[in-house]
UniProtKB/TrEMBL annotation:
GO terms for cellular component: cytoplasm. Transmembrane segments: none annotated. Residues 14-187 form the N-acetyltransferase domain. It holds the Pfam family Acetyltransf_3. SUPFAM superfamilies: Acyl-CoA N-acyltransferases (Nat). It comes from the Bacteria. The lineage of its organism: Bacteria, Bacillati, Actinomycetota, Actinomycetes, Kitasatosporales. Keywords: Acyltransferase, Transferase. InterPro entries: Acyl_CoA_acyltransferase, GNAT_dom, N-acetyltransferase. Belongs to the acetyltransferase family. RimJ subfamily. GO terms for molecular function: protein-N-terminal-alanine acetyltransferase activity. This is GNAT family N-acetyltransferase.
Amino acid sequence: MSAVWPAELADGDVLLRPIRLRDQHAWREVNRRNRDWLRPWEATIPPPPPDGPVAQRPTYRQMVRHLRAEAHAGRMLPFVVEYQGRLAGQLTVAGITWGSMCSAHVGYWVDAAVAGRGVMPTSVALAVDHCFRTLGLHRVEVCIRPENVPSRRVVEKLGFREEGLRPRYLHIDGAWRDHLVYALTAEETGDGLLARWHRSRPGTRSAGAAE
């Protein structure tokens, strides 16, 4: 992973770069403004078993240190999303598995203030192209609550296949929630998701990707 991480991926006004400890102020400010927007889709910690220890949410610094350690171990790509030079969200490629599987899954969130501007489809396209073309992965999944229509539209615009339902898949907003599975394999992406995304938006063109 040392050859492909850290990485910066860019297209137009959108930049994906590694999350940093010094992002704390901007990250907290965006999260604070978006509490109601993000709460229905955010992972939560399930109740502990009887007499078991109560798990605590990590601090920002603990989260970043964990993400960076996982990145250096080759299991994760933890990006923040910048739009027009400002922190506007987060995208994480996680569960990177090699061997016979060569797969990963992608999770993301975006500031409501920039939703609808193509920020997240561009970000997902950049990340998935990086996974297939630079890392050499074969399959990428995105799991989304059925009720999260905006997030489903992101992957549907990029041509992800809906594969089915995973009942009670993740603990979200205080309960175990069903998730729809969307997936792509490298053979299905042609000349790349970023190129596909730009073709679907007449009048736009790529500024290229930097790694």
